Amino acid sequence: MTAFLTSLAFIVLAEMGDKTQLLAMSFAMRYRWQTVMWGVFAATAVNHFLAVLAGNFLTVIIPMNIIHIAAAVSFVIFGLWTIRGDTAECENKQTTIHPFWIVAIAFFIAECGDKTQLATVALAVQYNSVVPVWIGTTAGMLIADAIGIIFGVMMGRRIPAQTVKWFAALVFIAFGVLGLYKYLPKDVLTVPVVTGGIVMLVVLIILAAKTGRRNISDEIRQQ
After folding, report:
1. pLDDT of 20-79, one tens digit each?
2. How many angstroms separate the CA atoms of 173 and 115, rounded?
3. Cα separation, 73 vs 106, whole angstroms
């Protein structure tokens, strides 16, 4: 149950402001929301199942302590990635393909190498479990994209996107830092190392925020 709930929560947070959530909003404006949700479900179920299998396999060849440290680092990266932000690119071309397949294929491709897929691998590694992580991450994607559709299409932007993005990013970073503190050897966690790590993290957060603002400015100029 812990693996399921943690996977669900992490994916919901990771998906906030992600390009696939923006993709869901875009599709919901053109197709029935039920079709969009089924397409998201099919694509996510397949994509994340492959990611979970990959993560579960790593535990056989790599020591668990190293895997836990790598997973913690990846969560920090997810947080920085969330602050930096993504952009969604979706072409508006007429086609005879059923909308379900358009949505499913687009989401499967968009998830390949995306931070939510990498988070799924990391969670499978951390919990060494396939089914709970797979179900949790798939459910998390559906919940996050449903929220995106509701707020983006039906209710409008009542909650600032930046507020949601920063909340999700800081939660990821906090989990990553706690993981590093828990699994790194205690003789490594000296005062200079911890201080240097904090300074480096702050600098990376500032750089990610600046890059994110620059990306938004570039998008506005292109419109």
Report:
1. 777 777 777 777 888 888 998 998 888 888 877 776 666 567 676 776 787 788 778 878
2. 14
3. 29
Tokens of 106: 């687009």
Nearest Cα residue to 69 out of 211, 209, 197: 197
For residue 213, CA distances in Å to 26, 105, 137, 175, 204 come to 22, 30, 29, 25, 14
Domain residues of the chain, as ranges?
2-222
Specify the DSSP element, H or E, that contains 16: none
Which residues make Cβ contacts (< 8 Å) with residue 43, sequence separation at least 6?
103, 104, 105, 106, 107, 108, 111
Distance CA 220, CA 206 (A): 21
For 117, the token pair is 């897929």
Tokens representing residue 76 in the block: 């920090």
d(CA 117, CA 79): 14
